[in-house]
Amino acid sequence: MKKNYRVLSLLLACIFFVSVLASCSGGETPEDTTSADTTAVSVPDNWPEVDGTVIYVDVSAEDGGDGSKTTPYKSIPEAQARIREIKSAEGLPDGGITVLVASGEYNIKDGIKFTEEDSGTESAPIKYVSAEKGGAVLNGGVTLNASDFEPLNNEEKAILNDAAAKEAVRKIDLTKYGLTSEDLGALHNYGHAAAKTSSAQGYSELFINNERMTISRYPNLSDDDSNLRTGSTNGKDEFQILSINEFEAPAFAVKERGVNWNTDDLWVFGYFEYPWADSAVKVSSLDLESLTVAIDDILAYSIKVVKPFYFYNILAETDEIGEYYIDRENAVLYVYPTEDFENSKITVSSASDNLITAQNVSYITFEGFELTGSITNALVLSGEYITVDNCLIRDVRYNAIEATGTNITIQNSEICQIGDSGIIITGGDASTLTNSENLVYNNYIYNWGQVGRTYESAIELYGCGVTVSHNEMHNAPHQAITWNGPNHVMEYNEIYNVCLETSDCGAMYSGRRYDWYGGVIRYNYIHDIGSGSAAAQGIYLDDALSGQTVYGNVIVNTTDYGIQVGGGRDNIIENNLIINVAGNTIDFDCRAYEALTSGEGHWFYSCIAYMSNLLIPAQTWQIWLDTFPGYGDIIPYTADYTGDLDDPNLSVNPSNNIVRTNMYYVLDEGIRGNDGISSRVVEMSIVENNHTILDLEHTDIPGYVSGDYTLADDAEAYQYGFEKLPFDEMGRIEK
Q: Do 170 and 251 have their domain in common?
């Protein structure tokens, strides 16, 4: 496009005059300032219109910009520094400041850190906004060129066990991309063998077209014949466990293929005893003469021969498409190329810190960014009035977002390809029942728990009074939502295809506390939970969890119970629609009482006194008594208790529950759920008006085949006083 230089000169003169007036008056930072000697640079000519004071950032701009539309800053930290200057000089302008970030890839290997200095105010908030949704990519990793990958030399080929792999596998020197051994991090123990924590050292991973590739392993995923999809011995000849003593670190025997395995940085992963307890442990030694491996760490639980496990991080086993191995000492990456590898996006994560860390900040927003490539977390936030909106977060080793504080909103974002959990959010004061007012709203979360397999959730709640609403969650080995603390509300969410490789679990899960009253689980659509023989529940109130309300949920196709309540008291299970579940529709036991009467030999016995000690002292917390009538009447069980074991107020008794007006529909022949409610629950609680309805013709649920579970106006359930459910409002709201 030809430029009209006369018009441009007049425009520049006007801008200069305005900037002089602003500087003389000590006013706001100029919105569109430029200088007469600025040379032309490639900057966007279609910046979106934004009200108020704006600072512009464009990674393609030249150095030395002033943050104006025509000469933007090159990086976000430059804009951050400018805002600090404005605050210290004249204070934030009314309406606050928006940092508008142009599309492009911003390498933030060391992360961006915000502190209290970077806070806005209620009348002058600070916003960091991608000019185009997802256009500004904050990348902690490195993008590799497919053409830089080379064939293996003869020595490297000799290491590989598979003949085809010797010719197919390629390697690349990562030092050519500025990556050192330190940048690549180190593998580490995790799971029940070591605490999962974001403070642990992370490690680089390979992503191709934004999908996490598999660290070289044996057996391969394709070799596995178990429903857990993790590579199982199950009596095969490949492995033999030599030691299964609970108090000894186990040793394993391997076959001849182990001769080529690397003796250092070799790891074993498994569900060694329980299908809800994963562990990854480093192999301490590999004896090539006896072909045995040993680990030093004693697992949290014992080990059983038939449980699934596999070895990984083995160059010799790079024999399946998508597998890779990183020689971290020499910074060399080996990969079995995927289809159309030459035209694929190939990245290695490397950011040694969180992509964004914002501590003790307030009135700050991050909107529209893509965040990717961290070997730790994407965002770690603390403070108040913080918003994450319309972001895409993916390819992260640990958690997508960790947020602590009050009035934090995480909304309209997409989160995927996450090693551990999606959103972990904490706030409020449980002791005084002060709600955090935190909100997790309308997010799309999938493919989490890709490294840590159990107790990693799409959304984890801590503290008091977090609302989780209208989110969509799917594809994970374990649970989707877990909550800790009182007064959380989980409503209108859609959850499916979770608990795919674990058992004794639930799509929505919490448990083992008497002091987490006030939880509300309502109007959620939970379907297709569990896989194969993995026994999974729709909603699971585990191990005597108490004081929860489960109302108006639609639960369809679970491999075990629709709703499971593991004892507990003061729970309300009402007006839920349960369809085609493999186990009991509602299973409600009395395990705490059974543990008390069975004694120390019962698996739950050690927990009941511990849980009772967590009861809020009634004389200290009057607000609890005002909020939860009857809470102060609970008698904590202690080892020296000599009172009446049948006293409904004794904490271990499943008292004051309501299980009422729940409808179970049988829509397919051969799927018949049953109620599994303990007689002691019936004796000490209200259990009434629950019905099983046979609807093989689908007259009550005419949209069944298409996945619409709205009841017809004349459905039989309404004859029993069942209240209509807002099925069409459940799930994510498309924007």
A: yes
